[in-house]
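hiii so um. not sure if this is the right channel but i have a protein structure encoded as tokens and i wanna go backwards to a sequence. like what aa goes where. can anyone help
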């Protein structure tokens, strides 16, 4: 064992007392937070999580760090949501349709043909409605931090161009593991197949499914476009992504650190939007250059009418009906 001088012992004691004092005054314990994302390393949401981690490390003087597990390293979204709820994962970026299985308000945001445009969606989420929704997570084991963009989801397949609702008849279309998404696809006349995100490419390549529905970046970055050459701009949902922290992890933070986390999350949301716009444009160009048939000139009204029953069912819940009405009134 090394022998310390009286001066060295004194310095060590001062440092130890200073650390104890810092913890006592802030009520915070330094730790590494695990964040889950199913997307690839260079995807905008993953970049945004890393940017948030940098901000938190800076603001907390290195006490807190975020380690991002991308590319489904911690499991598919359905699995990571359950682990986050249990406190085994600290932070999770997920689509609202999947977390809607736990948080009812999320099912409203995932409703087909709810938002008139991306601008309309952003105005809703950036305003009082978005804040109220994020604040509604806690009874379900999460704390909502911010929303990330996810563009508009459209239908693509490798069998035939879809120009009308009739063209969807009989097609096996992958949907997220969400009852709402399955209801929507059945209403449109297709056969929904609930598959984890990571299994879609194999399903398309082996013809276990005919197609899927997603945004431009997901269509291209996953190589789905190589097996599904018909992309129809149905833009049926504009459901955003949401970043949550487990209630267990949130309760471990001091009041000051909670402010740091929330502000860093909001800044990462703005950062993500810039990255998202660039990737969306690049993805669309890449699909076009690869020869994907893009069907733009569709009559959306029959598609909207086909899912009217879903809106009617949602309207039976007074809370959901009120939220839908408030969203529609946002100009």
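sure thing!! here u go:
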């Amino acid at each position: 064992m090394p022998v310390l001088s009286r001066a060295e012992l004194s310095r060590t004691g001062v440092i130890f007392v200073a650390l104890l004092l810092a913890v006592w005054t802030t009520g915070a314990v330094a730790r590494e937070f695990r964040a889950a994302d199913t997307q690839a390393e260079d995807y905008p949401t993953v970049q945004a999580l890393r940017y948030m981690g940098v901000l938190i490390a800076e603001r907390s003087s290195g006490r807190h760090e975020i380690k991002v597990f991308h590319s489904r390293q911690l499991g598919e979204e359905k699995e990571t949501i359950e682990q986050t709820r249990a406190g085994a994962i600290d932070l999770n970026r997920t689509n609202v349709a999947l977390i809607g299985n736990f948080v009812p308000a999320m099912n409203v945001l995932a409703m087909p043909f709810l938002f008139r445009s991306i601008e309309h969606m952003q105005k809703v989420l950036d305003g009082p409605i978005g804040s109220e929704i994020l604040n509604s997570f806690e009874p379900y084991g999460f704390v909502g931090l911010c929303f990330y963009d996810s563009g508009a989801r459209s239908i693509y397949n490798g069998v035939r161009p879809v120009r009308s609702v009739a063209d969807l008849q009989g097609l096996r279309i992958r949907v997220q593991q969400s009852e709402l998404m399955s209801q929507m696809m059945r209403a449109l006349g297709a056969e929904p197949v609930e598959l984890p995100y990571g299994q879609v490419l194999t399903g398309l390549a082996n013809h276990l499914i005919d197609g899927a529905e997603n945004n431009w970046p997901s269509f291209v970055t996953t190589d789905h476009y190589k097996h599904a050459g018909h992309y129809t701009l149905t833009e049926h949902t504009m459901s955003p992504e949401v970043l949550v922290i487990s209630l267990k992890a949130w309760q471990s933070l001091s009041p000051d650190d909670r402010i740091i986390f929330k502000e860093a999350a909001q800044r990462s949301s703005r950062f993500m939007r810039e990255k998202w716009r660039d990737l969306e444009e690049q993805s669309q160009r890449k699909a076009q250059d690869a020869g994907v048939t893009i069907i733009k000139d569709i009559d959306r009204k029959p598609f909207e009418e086909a899912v009217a029953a879903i809106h009617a069912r949602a309207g039976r819940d007074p809370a959901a009906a009120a939220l839908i009405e408030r969203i529609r009134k946002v100009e």
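oh and Confidence is low (pLDDT under 50) at residues 7-27.
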